[in-house]
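Re: that chain you flagged

S.,

Sorry for the slow reply, it's been a week of failed gels. I finally had a moment to sit down with the sequence you sent. For the record, here it is as I used it:
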Amino acid sequence: MGIGHRPVHGAGMPENEPRMKDSQIATALGDLGSRVEQTNELLQRMLAEVAKTPSTHAIFVDAGYVYAAAGLLVAGTEDRRAFDLDAEGMIEAFIDKARTIFADSRLLRVYWYDGARRRIHTPEQQSIAELPDVKVRLGNLNANNQQKGVDSLIRSDLESLARHRAISDAALVGGDEDLVSAVEAAQGYGARVHLWGIEAADGSNQAEPLLWEVDSQRTFDLDFCRPYITRRAVTTFENEGAPPPSRDEVRFVGAQIAATWLAERGRDTMAELLPGHPYLPGPVDQDLLIEAERVLQRSLRGHAVLRRALRDGFWQHLQAQY
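Prediction finished late last night. Pasting the structure tokens below so you have them in one place:
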């Protein structure tokens, strides 16, 4: 045997490495088979539990859309001050409809999105928040009575619930194109999004890109909405036959209202009006007129001079504060 060569033992195995006996191989294979069987049993139990767990749905309501669309359809106006909405009744109707559509699913809750000054609940929003299975989420309401931040709240909730598998289906009541990103986010986590709308009085009240993105679409007609909308009676004043107030009186009332709004709505909100001087946004001008008529207990409609005096008093006080 030459130098540097070592004898080889067995089938190429190193000299000192022990060989596994047939009995040991059989034991190892038996242990492996037992573990596989246990794993399969565990998976079967998990699948059985998943099969027993009902799917879950939630309803997301853009209240601004509901007020505008249902008000226009039933009462002929989008102005909330012209009609009353039975929010409790409409929410219950939405829940009943969801029970029919998602028959094998349970309701997580209804999310009601609305705007409010400084995100402080109005009495109406507070009563809605007290309803069972309803959560009110508030965006801000700017000086032009426009909702701010509502779409981002909807997206945040939709995405979060879908990501955590808290819902399998979402019924979205709205029409704004800005909701497309919310739909895409929820769908990205496997949730199905169903768009619910209110019949348009004329044309369409839901953005086409939103209709393209959702998994299904449903529209509620006039008969569905009519029971929940009541038009308010036109206000009449007892002293209509009396002489109209003077310009100074009306100007003083305008200043009073400006002071009240500063306290209630906040300086930042009111400051948003300043760049528009001497004009007020339509909704704000309407609020001012209605509040002045309430204080004066008479109509200022048809009195252009007095309405200018009202605005002058309003602006005079507002500008003096900044």
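What I noticed first: Residues 55-231 form a domain with the Rossmann fold fold (CATH 3.40.50.1010).

Talk soon,
D.
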